Amino acid sequence: MKRVLYALSVMAIALMIESCVAVKSSSKELSGLGKVYHNTTAQYNGYFNANEILEATMLTMDQQYKDNYTQILAVYPYMGIDNPKAAAPELDEAVKKVTKVAALHPKSDWVDDCYLLAGKAHFLKQDFETAEQTLRYLTAEYSPEKARLKKAVQRNASGRTSTSSRPPALDADGNVLSAKEKAKVRKKLKKDKEKQTKKVAQARKKYNADVARARKQGRPLPPKPEILNKTKTATPSTTSTTKTPAQIQKEKARKEAEESKREEEFLKKKPAYYEGVLWLGRTLIERDNEDLAFRSLTQLESDKNTPDKVRAELAPLLAHFYIQKKQYEEAIKPLEEAVELADNPKSKARYNFILAQLHQRASRWNEAYAGFEKVASSSVNYEMQFNARLNMAQNSWLSGKGSAESATAQLERMLKDQKNQEYRDRIYYALANVALKNNDRPTAIKYLTLSVRSGGSNPAQVTESYYTLAQLYFDEEKFIPTKNYLDSTLTVMDKKDDRLKTATVLRDNLVDIAKNLSIIQVQDSLLLLSALSDADLKKRAAKMKKDEDEKRIRDLEKANVPSNNGPTLGAPTARPLLTAGGQQAELFWAYEDKELKQGKRDFQRSWGERTLEDNWRRSQKQGGNNANETASTQEETPAAAAATANPNNADDANDVATYLGPVPRSDAERRSAEIKLIDAMYKLGVLYYDKLENFPKTVSILEGLNNRFGRHNFELNSWYYLYLAHTKLNQTEKAKVYYDKIVVGYPTSTFARVLQDPNYAAEFLNEERKVNVYYDEAYAAFKSGKYQEAFQMASNSKVRFGAENKLASRFALLAALCTGNIQGKEAYVSALNEVIARYPNSEEQKRAKEILRLLGASGAQLPGDDERTIDESQRFRPDENAIHFILVVFESNTNLDAAKAKISDYNRNYHKLDKVTITNLFLGDDEKTRKLLVILRRFENKAAAMKYYDGVMKNRNEFMVSGLEYQLLPISMDNYRSVLRDKTVDGYGEFFEANYLK
Questions:
Q1: Which helix (H) or strand (E) holds 214?
Q2: What is the pLDDT of residue 147?
Q3: Mean per-residue pLDDT, 100-122
Q4: Where do the TPR repeats lie (predicted)?
Q5: Assuming Cys at both sites, which of 352, 565, 731, 948 could form a disulfide with 726, CB separation 3.0 to 4.6 Å?
Q6: Which is the CATH superfamily of the domain at 667-756?
Q7: Tens digit of pLDDT for each residue in 651-672?
Q8: Is the Cβ–Cβ distance between 322 and 328 less than 8 Å?
Q9: Are 481 and 449 in contact (CB under 8 A)?
Q10: What's the whole-number mean pLDDT along residues 689-713?
Q11: 3-state secondary structure of 967
Q12: Per-residue exposure over 723-761, b if at least 16 CB sit within 10 Å of its own CB, e if not
């Protein structure tokens, strides 16, 4: 028996070896056993393990994503995570496994699945370019047309024909029909079919008329006739309806064959082509190739051979496509289909939630309520159920199921539920939405403020609350709180948020507006206070101080923490309070022992050991003296003498300054406040016009300025902006008033010339262009080493274009640089100092200071040795399509081996397939100042280099040794050559920030 088993084992091994060897010849077909071996090994070895990795990674990515319920939910959560590169090591391993499977088993039926899985892995890494290449190869090489052609070729090669003969026509007894008999049968069948078609048409016409009549009269619809319910009309046959035993046997054999074929189709492996087309469509959507994506998906939808599984995945993808394009109405139908086809309860609940959100967006409150109700009753996570109930409460009164008061009451009950404590910010936000729908803006602002103060852990909700507050204040033209709330919004807003750019632009436009509004408010208040007597000012300050103290006491009482006014700097005697539940109450910061000790040490470090007494800050006190201090022998000032005579005066003066600010007390101080006010009002009017295009506000502020202060330094400019604003508002008569004022009052001004001569503006701009061209020519002479010529041109610019031309500072710096080359270092330093003195707060002043610093460091550096001192933009040039490297810049004493090892590990984990190479060099001749560069090469273009850069920014701890300082700089090949030529990376960091990070 053992010999038999041994022989069988040897034969099996031999057959397996033969089947494996057969793969080596691409022209030969595998044997049956060989096919089974390769299919089994491919499926249950490499492919199975890779698929397990892929599914586990998708699950992990899903769990990492935090849903933002204030926006339309993502159809695919795993696509919204911040750092998809974190999953790159696992996904690269999956790609490696299926690549090996495709190489070892090229004739197995699982090669197409291997390409599909690789495409999915690249897609999940958000390496969409590689994913597209992989999936395009799959859909091209493994299309059904190509598969049929391949089978036909194989059949022809094996001597079989691809055509099949049609069986002869038989009568009821199994006899072969003659040609004449067949013609008669066909004619009879055609006639019967025409009759049947006519009957169906008449029945349908009558039924449609009955339905229309019933709808018009409000009656129930009539039942559908039986003839219309039949999918196929029965065609009478000329043959006998009684079946012979031969016919029964033949029918049975036919049914058995069909059943066998269905079983075979069920067991047969489905091709990966259709799912490949689906994922290719997803990839094209992410690459913004929407037209081609839509064609692929609609073709898949219309193909009758598309498997049910793929069709079920197609519906949510179409919804995702429309939502991405913001075509929300078109997304509803595929979402409804997705709900019907979804087997997974979580997916079904998500699709229902998104569908309800779309209905809510379109103000279809009943449909929205019904959708959220389905989610609330489903078995999903509590957070989604909670948000569904939150939306139900908001939609209930809008759909006619209640009132605004009942919705508010329901939400307030949710506030009291302990399970919802971490969601209080969302409930307050929902209450604000109800108030807004009810046109109650003050209440909405109150709830939004409470939402922000609730301090929820969800940045998305904090973003919505801040942003909504900013919008409400902007609508009310309260620009200071608008700007402040936009600042807060931008600190928490997701960088992928579509509103980021809009919010940033608006915030930037409001920075100067808020600044000038604040100046106006402060100076107005100070001028009003300046009219009060000293006694009244002290009373106001005392009242404000008293109010503040009372508020502090109330806050302490609310916190249930007793006030401690004991005369000691030591630890307080009060014990920690316990709540009703026996838990220690949270202490006010001043009762924390650690804080008290730190405060005591800081006090003693500044003031020394002091006796605890009133007025301890004064050098002269009415009662007692400080034993640790030596009496002052300095002469007292009048203010000190007054404070000594009346010790409360100093405190009163301090209170006035603290609570009321620097109130003007003299005419000069009042005039200074007015000048600040005039300047701020004029700038604000211009900003309203230029930044916000708010022409009514421009008119209001500038007319207020002129009416209040009469003639001032900005009179002409204010008239010009008033003329422009009234023109924009189509107020031609008022515009004409300011036109006349400008032309009559300032006839030789630029504004008057522009208004009277439309060509003057073009001539003025042409003059500016001439200055630019002249400067470029002077700078070109400098670069060519013609320092005397460049110096002469820079000096003549004052004569040609005036001493105050717009490029005067640049001409001055250029002249200084030429001076250094012509006259030497001493004259160079003197010329640079003149630039610094004459052009404060200018870019040229900054550059002159930097050159002086370099001169002090090197002792002999001249401008011709370093062209960067004139214009860094001439040294580096942006080129998005050029080959890029990435520079990692260290100080020269860095542990190079450790740094390179860490970078290599990072590349192995996150960029295994990208083949990034690492080299290093030292840059600079001076050992003290030279830099160590690690060069990572190479990347196809700027986008590829920035993709690597972004990945490092999200995984910094894995990229570099802890505590090691470095710069990461993507750089084009030409700019890299400039760095090597100049032997320095100085200046490139600024270029990188300006051209790569904005």
A1: helix 179-217
A2: 74
A3: 84
A4: 312-345
A5: 731
A6: Tetratricopeptide repeat domain (1.25.40.10)
A7: 555 666 777 778 888 888 888 8
A8: yes
A9: no
A10: 92
A11: strand
A12: bebbbeeeeeebbeebbebbeeebeebebbbbbeeeeee
CB atoms within 10 A of CB 378: 17
Kindly state the percentage of the chain with pLDDT values over 90: 23
Q: pLDDT tens digits for 460-507?
A: 889 999 999 999 999 999 999 999 999 999 998 988 888 999 999 999
What is the third-level CATH fold of 876-996?
Alpha-Beta Plaits (3.30.70)
Residue entry with tokens 């926006």 = 71
Instruction: Give the pair of three-digit tokens for residue 936.
Output: 């990572």
Report which secondary-structure segment, H or E, holds 885.
strand 884-891
What is the reported pLDDT for 754? 83
pLDDT at residue 583 is higher than 80? no
Q: In angstroms, rounded to a whole number, what is the distance separating the alpha carbons of residues 657 and 640?
A: 17
First-to-last C-alpha distance (Å) of the chain: 80
Structure tokens, 304: 């009758």
Query: What does the DSSP assignment read for 117-178?
Result: HHHHHHHHTT-HHHHHHHHHHHHHHT-HHHHHHHHHHHHHHTT--S--PPPPPB-TTSPBPP
The residue extents of the domains of the chain are 4-21+30-126, 667-756, 778-870, 876-996
Report whether 356 contacts 368 (CB < 8 A): yes
* Full 3-state SS string of 622-673: CCCCCCCCCCCCCCCCHHHHHHHHCHHHHHHHHHHHHHHCCCCCCHHHHHHH
Comparing CA positions, the residue from 114, 105, 122 lying closest to residue 50 is 114
Q: What is the DSSP letter of 971?
A: E
pLDDT, tens only, 908-937: 888 877 788 888 888 877 766 778 889 998
Q: Which helix (H) or strand (E) holds 938?
A: strand 931-939
**What is the pTM assigned to this prediction?**
0.60
Residue-wise pLDDT for 297-355, tens only, equals 888 888 888 888 888 899 999 999 999 888 999 999 999 999 998 888 899 999 999 99
